Records
---
Amino acid sequence: MDNRFQAYRQVDINTTNRGKIVVMLFSGAITFLNKAKIHMNNNDFVNKGKYIIKAQNIIDELNYSLDMEKGQEISKNLRSIYTFLNRYLSQANVQCKPEMLDKAIIILEKFKNAFDEIANNPEYSEAKEIKNKEQVENSIRKLI
């Protein structure tokens, strides 16, 4: 059964647009942090750390996938936020403070909701095809 699930997930990822993949990544990080919080509250330090690291790995992947050339200022700002979140989660892990995980979850949920809104907007497909920087900026302004 696990193999069928993995095959389904692979097809889902291969056929989903990039915006929806980003939303899925944010959802995964949020899920892992919620699991880490449960383990933190139960003093299960091994699993707490395991799930925080999984969330950090997702944030790292989001960070590494940024196109700094095309994204310019937006990518630079996202990189700063992702870097902050990873440091903050490291501190939450060491200090064992569930409220720190809650704050990180709130930030991730806001990003997830914003990316979800963009990915589900009919004008998103138009924005994907645009090559000109000015057209990209105008499309983003329409979506905001």
Note: The helical segments are 2-15, 18-41, 45-64, 68-95, 98-119, 124-129, 133-143.
---
Amino acid sequence: MISRRLLRIKILQALYAHYKSEGKTISQSEKDLFFSIDKTYDLYHLLHLLIIDIMNAAIEKIELARHKKIPEHDDLYPNLRFIENRLILQFQDNYRLNKYVTSRKLSWVNYPELVKNLLHLLEDSAEYRTYMEAENSDYEADKKIVIDFIACYMADYDDLHQAIEEQSIFWNDDIEFIASMLIKTIKKYRSNHKFNGPVFELFKKEEDRKFVKELFRKSVLNETDYRNLIDKYTVNWEIDRIAFMDILVMQLAISEMIGFSDIPVKVSLNEYLEIAKFYCTEKSSNFINGILDKIVHDLRRDKVIIKKGKGLIGDNSIN
């Protein structure tokens, strides 16, 4: 279940690539867009696999210690709590996860040092020590250590970011979103799941796939009208002097506000202003907010923006 925020980012990236690639058709760019979303779904499964590989690295470490020439007590009688983590064992047995990983040939086999370093990172954490030293352990504790590691350590780990970028240009900005998606998945796991643990679908619902296709196409097909609209409300600016990414963010926002009657204007505005903070210049968010505010006011007045559905009647009012 890829979030609407990440889908909007993917559409923005596809729109940028479309305009920067001479002679590319809408259909070709749309195909690339959905390919990038499929790659994001690969990453979701790869992060599951990475957790399994970290556990396997811990097993290998224990086995090596046991076979020392002169093993110590802890080498012979290690704490097995982590390698018996019930959640990770469920990952390992998950039929849908294994089927997808096998069909897509996903693996961390070329990154053994990354897996070992992540294990060290885990073992050095206060959360891990608390987990391993607790008098009793239950299924919820097994879930919590994995969630804590993903949220507090793994998602921000520079070496992981580098490894992900090496594998696919489509994953450069995905890790935090997908880590969040994995945590949501883990929270849905129950102790009685055996081979059928939850795996989110690529799209939460069919409307999300339709949203991606329509928003991209509407933005491209109405480019001239929306660029003229932006030009009209940037009185003191020539449009070719405005940062290209700023224009694309506004173009997408306008397309969504006009083209999707079931999405509140406030939601669209907030989403694109947040995206602008990461993909545009430092001052872009305020600039874009000011321009879009004027555009929305006049489009509502002229009945170009019309919202329909439960709770959206007031969204048509002029502020």
Note: The chain has a mean pLDDT of 91.
---
Amino acid sequence: MSASEDATAWIKAMPVVFVLIWSTGFIVARYGMPHAPPFGFLTIRYLLSILCFGIWIVWARVAWPRDRAQWWHLSVTGILMHAGYLGGVWAAVKAGMGSGLSSLIVGFQPVLTAIWLSYSLRGADQPGVSRRQWLGLWLGFFGLLMVVWRKLTLGSPMDHVTPVNMAFALGALFSITVGTLYQKRFVKPCDVRSANSVQLLAAFVVTLPLALAEPEAIQWNPELMGAMAWSVLGLTLGGSSLLYLLIQRGAAASVTSLMYLVPPTTALIAWVLFGETITAATLAGTALTALGVSLVVRPSRK
């Protein structure tokens, strides 16, 4: 296989790899959340990720963005997509919201993205969201609802909604939606390693004061260290880099529709690791979600 064929195969595999990596986020939260406050965990994660990217940048002699405006745009996306999104989700779960409800709220992102694109591109010379894509978006959302419905209806003393955790979850939804649209609109293509470093540095600056204000101390143990290691190496260096590349390469509605596949994949991973029940509704919702995503990402016939 030639180098060009290898590159083409990798580009085609990127969405699958991204979904698999991104789906481990709630698994990491399950391991790490009992032993660390959310912003304290994320601050250390950002710092370690910056150090790893820094070593990689020096070794590979990667160029940094030279345009001051590019640094600004990358910083804005870093605050939104790292500090805002991850901080909101982790804080909502820590404040008592169940992972099913939090994933459902954040899972509304593709629909919000499509609504904004349809409104903003109306009358422009750019293709908006087609009827087929709208159908796929809503099918994907209803499939997502089927996957998380069991967790929503089971209930537990620690699975309740309060104004605080709802504000965190809605803040995460707002951050990932605006961050995706902002990056697609303003961030120019540049090396993913230096771009991610700038984003993480901005997220670290915003998250550090919140971490210092948390009264809970971090309790280091094998579970937390494993969660931290995968958060840095897998989720940040791998998942966040792939998300950056996917946004640069694809349409925003198509890229964000991949987020629909995260909860079903997480459910399958939790079944393998923790023996959590897989119901017929979960399987049906997964199939419906996959169908919806396929309708969104399938190229249009000209």
Note: The chain has one domain: 3-297.
---
Amino acid sequence: MVTGASGFIGAALCAQLARAGHEVVPWSRSAARIALSTGQPLATRPVELCDELPPGCLDGVDVVVHLAGIAHQRARARDYDAVNYEATLRLARTAHAAGVSHFLFVSSVKAMGAPADDAARSEEDCVVPDEPYGLSKWRAETALYREFGGTSLRLSIVRPALVYGPGAKGNLQRLARGVQRGLPRPPAGGQRSCIALADLVEILCGAVAAPPRAVRTWIACAEAYSTQEIYDLVRGALGKAPARSWTPLWAWRVASALLDALQGSGDQTTFTRLFATEVYSNARLLSESPWRPRACLADTPQVLLQAAAQKATQPASGRSSQRPPEQPDA
């Protein structure tokens, strides 16, 4: 069973699991339809994770892959906790009671808190996060360890870095749209670890096929890029000549502050998102699994253009809800 099955990561994961021969039970907040390997669209089961789960909803399920959560939103702290922490723990308890053998929680590197320096971080290099999104993921991880470590429920936690691929949302999408619209070249500085959607799906499928015998946490990441490097890749994908100059850092700091004043900064300021260094190590994952990175953003920068184009063609939505929507993290 996969939660967040109609989202960016969930839809790709369900398709790959079906191709591998698994029987997939997709959950989402609505009965959205996803495409599986048969070519026939499959309706997801509408389940509101913040409510009491229906009796018998996990009967016959061997593995739960929990992707659903609030991401890319300026939500209230209590809403992050309700969806990313409390609903996760409720689902794990339901899974344990139903005899599910393996609970795979897709968390985030944000659960590790803010970096102390520019060095690549391992799974143990953690501090308590000081922003609501990361804190809600950290609380979920901590509660799962405390309650299910040593039980019959096998528990694995995957912390993806920044995920890119066709249909990606968030900071990479916004940067690609900016380059298309004539955004000046940023200066050098800062790096962020990334991972391709296809690579992340392969990691998750591998964990489903061969669950760990003990509680394990892995960082899912591959290469790292600076904002300037991503900018140059997008320009190249657009067929534009490489930009030779750049706008100085102070100008980006002023522009970022103005944008935050107009739109709000969310969990991080715009300047931090663009120029901070957040680099992670995948050494544990490489040593404990056969997975090896296959994709590279430098080889396929067109995925950023596809994400930007998708955003530009999406119709405006007038949907409103008392709860923020559950989305897969990226």
Note: Residues 195 and 221 are 5 Å apart (CA to CA).
